[in-house]
């Protein structure tokens, strides 16, 4: 299967962070990777992964040099903006039955109205058993959506600014209908009966659920020339997939240990036990060091300090319909290669990890030598752009790190756009980085 079709399959199979980890492990196992618990000791050439709570994973190809000399990391995030179900989600109002949601990450709320939605996730029952849920993807099965006001009656709504267009509290998805006047909550009961029968879930089980509402449907080719991909969740699964595939395709034992790290919670600040703002990275690396009989607290610190990382996250593609937002000389264009961002942040680089120029020089050489086209950009004009990535959380260990990923048009929308050439460029760039 070619890279782009394999990428689309990855997107279709991975619409949540847990689904992405599952998909990544299946791909890795087919390429000889094994869970670290199956190794008593590791040696150069071994292919191993360490999973963290089903929502982040580090995959390593062990290199020839001691780990103390550093690791080459390519790190992407596998969470994407979406609507999460509240813990008490089911309600009926004037005949319609809804799931109540709370959005996750930065979205333009109006974009989520009147489009087919699916629900992906997992529910844990009190006895510890689980139900894995995917509903809304099958065209012959149920689907879901958020309704909107008809234009004929939207005079007041249309006067509002886009930010106020629909309050977050109203982003609730339609899941059923009660046609009996005067019999309030009969529809709610009927929907809960269906859920109980289909999924063996009681209403109380939603208290211990992680259910994510995402756009329904498959990744598509965009344009008559199929030069682009249109799909949900490309921020940042476009970098996650290419970083993963580049590692799986490493066919020699590298000098430096190579690691693709896929993390969660970037879209809400990298917090939590599966995000980068914490001990995740040293914990994962310690497991590998231990099985190489190289672990000490000093060796771990040296390893992280001597490491290099491509924080492989997406950036904003230049938008020809909104040119005023960009400094054209310092923008990335779709199709012109993988993009570096020396710094992110906003209003005077605030909150950014500014990459060292000597590191950038070494990367220029690696990519030029490998014949990989690249761009280097800033996200938007000085007082326009903003945003953070995981780079600063890696930088705190003293390692060299720079953002390097694919430019995305309509980023954070339900259907994001990337270029085929940039996906190929990212794959080649990450592979060259691992081999260097
Ligand atoms: Mn991102
Ligand atoms: Mn993002």
Structural class: alpha/beta
Radius of gyration: 23 Å
Report strand %: 15-25%
- The CATH architecture category of the largest domain equals 3-Layer(aba) Sandwich
Shape: globular
Question: How many domains in all?
Answer: 2
Biggest sheet layout: 9 strands, mixed
Spatial strand arrangement across the major sheet: 1-2-3-13-4-14-18-16-17
CATH class of the largest domain: Alpha Beta
Number of helices: 10
Mean pLDDT: 96
Structural overview:
- The chain is α/β, with parallel strands linked by helices and 436 residues long.
- The chain has two domains: 2-80 and 232-435, Aminopeptidase (3-Layer(aba) Sandwich), CATH 3.40.630; 82-215, Aminopeptidase i, Domain 2 (Roll).
- The protein is 26% helix and 25% strand.
- The protein has helices at 3-13, 17-30, 155-159, 186-199, 234-248, 280-291, 297-305, 357-370, 391-395, 420-435; strands spanning 34-35, 47-52, 56-61, 71-77, 82-93, 96-104, 117-124, 130-135, 173-177, 209-215, 220-222, 228-231, 257-263, 308-311, 315-316, 338-341, 374-376, 400-405, 407-408, 416-419.
- Strand 16 (338-341), helix 8 and strand 17 (374-376) form a beta-alpha-beta unit.
- The radius of gyration is 23 Å and the shape is globular.
- Bound molecules: manganese (II) ion (2 copies).
- One manganese (II) ion binds at residues 235, 267, 412.
Write a concise synopsis of the structure shown.
With 436 residues, the chain is of the alpha/beta class.
């Amino acid at each position: 299967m070619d890279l782009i079709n394999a990428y689309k399959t990855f997107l279709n199979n991975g619409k949540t962070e847990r689904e992405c980890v599952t998909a990544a492990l299946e791909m890795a196992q087919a390429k000889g990777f094994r869970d670290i618990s199956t190794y008593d000791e590791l040696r150069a050439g071994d292919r191993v992964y360490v999973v963290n709570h089903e929502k982040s994973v580090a995959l390593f190809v062990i290199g020839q040099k001691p780990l103390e000399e550093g690791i080459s990391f390519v790190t992407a995030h596998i969470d994407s903006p979406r609507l999460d179900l509240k813990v008490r989600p089911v309600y009926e109002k004037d005949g319609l039955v809804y799931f109540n949601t709370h959005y996750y990450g930065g979205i333009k709320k109006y974009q989520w109205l009147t489009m087919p939605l699916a629900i992906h996730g997992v529910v844990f029952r009190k006895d510890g058993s689980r139900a894995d849920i995917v509903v809304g993807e099958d065209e012959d099965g149920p689907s879901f959506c958020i309704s909107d006001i008809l234009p004929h009656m939207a005079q007041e709504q249309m006067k509002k600014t886009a930010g106020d267009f629909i309050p977050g509290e109203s982003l609730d998805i339609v899941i059923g209908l009660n046609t009996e006047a005067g019999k309030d909550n009969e529809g709610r009961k009927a929907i809960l009966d269906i859920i109980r029968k289909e999924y063996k879930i009681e209403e109380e089980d939603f208290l211990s659920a992680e259910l994510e509402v995402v756009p329904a449907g498959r990744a598509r080719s965009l344009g008559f020339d199929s030069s682009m991909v249109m799909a949900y969740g490309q921020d940042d699964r476009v970098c996650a997939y290419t970083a993963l595939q580049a590692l799986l395709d490493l066919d020699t034992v590298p000098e430096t240990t190579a690691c693709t790290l896929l993390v969660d919670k970037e879209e809400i600040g990298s917090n939590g036990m599966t995000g980068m703002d914490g001990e995740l990275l040293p914990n994962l690396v310690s497991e590998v060091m231990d099985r190489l009989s190289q672990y000490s607290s000093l060796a771990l610190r040296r390893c992280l300090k001597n490491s290099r990382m491509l924080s492989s996250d997406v950036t904003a593609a230049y938008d020809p319909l909104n040119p005023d937002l960009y400094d054209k000389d310092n923008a990335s264009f779709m199709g012109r290669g993988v993009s570096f961002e020396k710094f992110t942040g906003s209003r005077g680089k605030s909150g950014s990890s500014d990459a060292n120029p000597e590191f950038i020089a070494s990367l220029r050489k690696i990519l030029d030598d490998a014949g990989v086209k690249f761009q280097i950009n800033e996200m938007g004009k000085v007082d326009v752009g903003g945003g953070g990535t995981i780079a600063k959380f890696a930088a705190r260990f003293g390692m060299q790190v720079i953002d390097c990923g694919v430019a995305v048009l309509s980023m954070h929308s339900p259907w994001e756009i990337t270029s085929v050439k940039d996906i190929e460029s990212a794959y080649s760039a990450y592979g060259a980085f691992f081999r260097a």
